[in-house]
Design goal:
The protein is mostly helical and 158 residues long. It contains 7 helices and no strands. The chain has one domain. The chain is 78% helix and 0% strand. The protein starts with a helix and ends with a helix.
């Protein structure tokens, strides 16, 4: 247990500045590359998407900020998080890697997901592809994490 705690502490407190820098840099890039951002020309909003009115605009901007920061955190996790996952449970390399990717995907998927919705509009084939591509993979990621959690509980019960 002490080794686990030390590895987690070393991975989070000693390197938090790296995590923060990567998270913020990626978040800023994602923000300006969002569909309504200056670099988002490749996925401009569909003409079917209505313009926000009143309080909708600040709420949508706040949502976008939250998504890009979470995206940045997901990228940081994918860059720096594998040793933390590896030190938490002595599981197979396959399960450890699946958990690592699942956590990264659960964090990083929101910005591209919403951006694709905005760009796609109401075109049904595109909506189906977006929903399957994101929702099914999120369900799989959740199942992987649930299995990992149960394995962790079994290991600690020994």
């Amino acid at each position: 247990m002490q080794t686990e705690s030390k590895a987690i502490k070393d991975g989070t407190t000693r390197h938090w500045v790296k995590w923060l820098i990567v998270t913020l840099v990626v978040a800023v890039i994602a923000f300006v590359a969002s569909p309504n951002g200056p670099l988002g020309a490749f996925w401009r909003p569909s003409p079917q998407v209505p313009n926000p009115a009143g309080v909708q605009l600040p709420l949508l901007i706040l949502l976008n900020i939250t998504e890009v920061v979470t995206f940045g955190l997901g990228v940081s996790f994918l860059i720096f998080g594998y040793p933390l996952v590896q030190s938490t449970l002595l599981a197979s390399k396959g399960l450890t890697f699946a958990v690592y990717l699942s956590i990264g995907w659960l964090l990083a998927n929101w910005w591209p997901h919403d951006s694709l919705h905005i760009a796609n509009g109401l075109e049904l084939n595109g909506l189906i592809a977006i929903e399957y591509g994101f929702h099914i993979t999120l369900m799989v990621a959740g199942a992987i994490l649930a299995y990992f959690f149960l394995a962790l509980l079994r290991e600690r019960a020994r």
